[in-house]
Amino acid sequence: MISPRRKERLLALVVLATALFTPPLLLVADRAGGSPSWLPAYLFVAWALVIGLMAWLMEGGRGE
User: Fold this and answer.
1) To the nearest whole number, what is the mean pLDDT of the chain?
2) For a Cys-Cys bond, which of 10, 29, 36, 46 suits 20, CB 3.0-4.6 Å?
């Protein structure tokens, strides 16, 4: 069974992922920096962050 603390952390991660991929932030990343589009780099970093945090969250709490 998943502990209540882990459920809270998973919910916070879902909220963070939703916030990272909302259109206003995507538009800011797309228009930042001038000529080259930073959108692919932003998407890659944000997706890697979400995956890394999910892996850390799911594997990190074995002692609970």
Assistant:
1) 85
2) 46
